[in-house]
Amino acid sequence: MLSFYFRDPKRLAAMESNHLSAFLNEAAVYFHAQGYFFKYARASLGYSAAFGDWLKCQRVRIDSISDDHVVQFFDSVSPDANSPRRKRAVSAVNNVLSLVRKKHPPRLSSSFAEKEVERFSEFLRTERGLARGTVEHHQRGLLLFFRSMFGNCQISMKRLSAESVHKYVTGLPHRSQQRNCCAALRAYFRFLRMNGICTSNLQQCLPVVRSNRMALSPKWLGDGDAAKLLQAVDRSTKIGRRNYAAILCMMDLGVRVGDVAVLRLDDIDWTHGTIRISNHKRGRPYDLPLPDRTGVAIADYLRKGRPATPHRNVFLRHTHPIGQPASAASLKRMVSVAWKRAGFTGPNRGTHILRHTMATCLKHEGQSLKSIADVLGHHSLQTTTLYAQVDLPALRRVAGEWPEVTV
């Protein structure tokens, strides 16, 4: 099947003699069977072939390929980790790597750092019940910290000093990395304290990394802006019907984009007019009444837009591979495109502003914070206050001027 994408004899011969040739051909068969665009499939195979050539030069056996090899390869050819081209290439290589791991499952690492991170991750999953995304964030941050501090040696808190920990955190290039690292380290130090290891001196040295989030009056959409956003979605197409229904789930129900992506047909009770939200962040599903507007939009998509598929997810992909469940990332990109079509510019134009909008509307209707927290699926009322705060511009319009006082 490689000959379908590579016609040049020399290039085809190089692909067939590549270190990953068997898996490249398997990936080519998959791309062709799923109807992927020719240019996308060809580029993906090219990236993966370059990775295979690098593995051969580094004398890495196929059964010992790890994620570290992927990072090392791309660091050598594309140092900018945030470039869109590198992200596409990494995704392509990981697709082929998934085929490799089906035949050659990754071996259990004997690294002290990875063993300790896995022990900590198991605690986060089973004891604290954190969402998978949060656990993965902590895993990445903690693993990089261990490798920097201990290398391949055994993990020992006695070898750490407050100065070395503070220097490592403040030396990270981006504020978001510093904030994520501090969150991971605080959770890990608490975990050690529960196991009888004192880390108070290390926890106290962690810096407070300020967030860019405004302390008051979070961004939210007024009725006019919300209508403008919905009008930017072309509901005459199948994918437009999907996008319209997905946006309404976030706007009318305050559902996180991750929960919209995993919404299933069985979660909607059409008889009683309710919908079950998975609440993946807390792991505690809850039911909400299904608004008429949202229910009509979902029903319209199911009847006239949703592709035929064995999957039970409500929202599916309409590009190749067609019929697969839509991911949270693809729904985020969809909302971003809708923002641009509506003519909105500036920051705070993601999916979470729709959740803020719903919470703020409930507060304007006089609902209590407890009621809003129940709708949002929050465990803490303190978190809810960040979503539904006082509308300062509205207060300024109704506030009277202070009388002048003369002495």
In short:
With 407 residues, the protein is mainly α. It has helices at residues 2-5, 9-16, 21-34, 38-57, 67-77, 84-103, 112-126, 132-150, 162-170, 175-194, 200-204, 223-231, 238-252, 257-261, 292-304, 328-342, 352-364, 369-376, 381-387, 392-398, and strands at residues 268-269, 274-277, 286-289. Helices cover 58% and strands 2% of the residues.
What do you see in this structure?
By secondary structure, the chain is an all-alpha fold. The protein is 58% helix and 2% strand. It is built from 20 helices and 3 strands. It has a 3-stranded antiparallel beta sheet with strand order 1-2-3, with no helix packed on it. Strand 1 (268-269) and strand 2 form a beta hairpin. Helix 3 (21-34) packs across helix 6 (84-103). The longest helix is centred in the first third of the chain and has 20 residues, at 38-57. The relative contact order is 0.07. Residues 214-218 and 398-402 have low confidence and may be disordered.
Shape: globular
Strand order of the largest sheet: 1-2-3
Give the helix tally.
20
Number of strands: 3
**How do the helices and strands follow one another from N- to C-terminus?**
HHHHHHHHHHHHHHEEEHHHHHH
Structural class: mainly alpha
Q: Biggest sheet, in brief?
A: 3 strands, antiparallel
**Mean pLDDT figure:** 84
Which percent range fits the helix content?
Answer: 55-70%
Topology, please?
Layout: H1 2-5, H2 9-16, H3 21-34, H4 38-57, H5 67-77, H6 84-103, H7 112-126, H8 132-150, H9 162-170, H10 175-194, H11 200-204, H12 223-231, H13 238-252, H14 257-261, E1 268-269, E2 274-277, E3 286-289, H15 292-304, H16 328-342, H17 352-364, H18 369-376, H19 381-387, H20 392-398
